[in-house]
Design a protein that fits this description.
By secondary structure, the chain is an alpha/beta fold. The protein is built from 14 helices and 12 strands.
């Protein structure tokens, strides 16, 4: 009865808009497997599966099961099946062109059944071109080196946040108990909808919605996020619901909270070329889309280790001040001015000079 099981799926994907004025019954007569005969009854936007041949029908489709499967999997066109005689249609319609429209899914109607937040307050704010000064900020530091380059540039940005009157909570992710996601989906389908890991990270994830702004301080490690941060964001599915919604022309999951924080990426890199940040930036942007975070922008600092050399720090005074001012601009306007970005990324040393300093220092 495999074909009947396949046909039972079709009432779920009825398009209520296309079929709101439709009264039709499609009877499927599978000539090689008569026991598989079944029907789909469409009435005013709804569809019912009928297990056997109905007393009346508007359309009779006579075909072999393998050929109908080929049509459903798009390996065989309806027009070609008709022309070759593999498919015979009797009844109201002289073809099955309407069938694909009838069962094209229902992006509007089905989404209305999803109760949770398709568009969060932070997303609405950005969409409307508004900006509310953040009061509570989460600084999430993902570097495994607690006092490295990431901490140095974060401290500069935090000065600007502090001086703007924000309450900043700094969290060193490697200090937290951060168990690996098991992919068990207990957080989606169990009765309590909780993550099986009752650890520090689980608590932080469920506090994220309390913050207005998140500074994600993440060094470029192996072309992307350090492992602790990747694991953290894997775990954030526990604040999403399993249903799909269509958002910016993509399938997404709705979030369980009406508001999520805005996010700024702060990222140092040991290399001097800016394109080394591309995988990191794109990855974080996609995370923001999935988690309903609003991506405000990024502060990218190449060859950051040069800035930590005491003898060279006077040369970077302008960049240090720009990072501090960037914190203030983020709070007041929700943007990072281009002139500050240029000061932060300004090339003080050539690539050859950087090579010489690095290689001789490591000898």
């Amino acid at each position: 009865m495999f074909m009947k099981n396949v046909m039972k799926i079709w009432p779920i994907i009825i398009n209520s808009i296309e079929t709101k004025n439709v009264e039709e019954i499609y009877f499927f007569d599978f000539i090689d497997n008569p026991e598989e005969a079944c029907a789909l009854a469409i009435s005013k936007g709804r569809c019912q599966y009928l297990d056997n041949e109905p007393e009346k029908y508007t359309n009779k489709i006579t075909i072999k099961t393998k050929d109908w499967l080929a049509i459903l999997t798009k390996d065989l066109l309806i027009a070609d099946a008709l022309e070759s005689g593999k498919l015979v249609i009797k009844g109201k319609d002289d073809n099955l062109e309407l069938f694909n429209r009838y069962f094209s899914g229902d992006p509007d109607g089905i989404q209305l059944e999803v109760p949770n937040y398709r568009l969060t307050e932070n997303e609405k704010e950005i969409q409307e071109g508004k900006w509310t000064k953040p009061q509570k900020v989460l600084g999430l530091i993902g570097s495994p080196r607690k006092k490295g380059a990431t901490f140095a540039i974060y401290s500069l940005l935090k000065q600007g946040l502090d001086e703007s009157g924000c309450v900043v909570e700094t969290v060193y992710l490697p200090d937290l108990e951060n168990k690996t996601c098991k992919g068990c989906f207990n957080c989606w389908y169990s009765k309590d909808k909780k993550c099986v890991h009752d650890d520090d990270v689980n608590e932080l994830i469920h506090k994220m919605h309390e913050y207005d702004l998140m500074i994600l301080a993440a060094p470029v490690y192996a072309d992307g996020l350090p492992g602790a941060l990747k694991n953290y964001f894997d775990r954030t599915i526990s604040i999403l619901d399993p249903q799909f919604i269509i958002k910016v022309d993509h399938n997404r999951h709705p979030v369980r909270y009406p508001k999520m924080p805005h996010l700024v990426l702060l990222s140092p890199c040991g290399y001097s070329e800016m394109d080394n940040f591309h995988p990191m930036v794109e990855h974080v942007k996609e995370i923001c889309k999935n988690m309903h975070l609003t991506y405000i922008g990024e502060i990218l600092v190449p060859a950051t280790w040069m800035m930590t050399i005491p003898n060279l720090q006077p040369l970077y005074a302008s960049a240090f001040e720009a990072m501090k001012l960037a914190g203030k601009e983020i709070v007041s306007k929700g943007k990072i001015p281009e002139e500050l970005t240029k000061k932060i990324t300004k090339e003080i040393f050539t690539r050859g000079q950087i090579l010489a300093i690095k290689n001789r220092a490591d000898q």
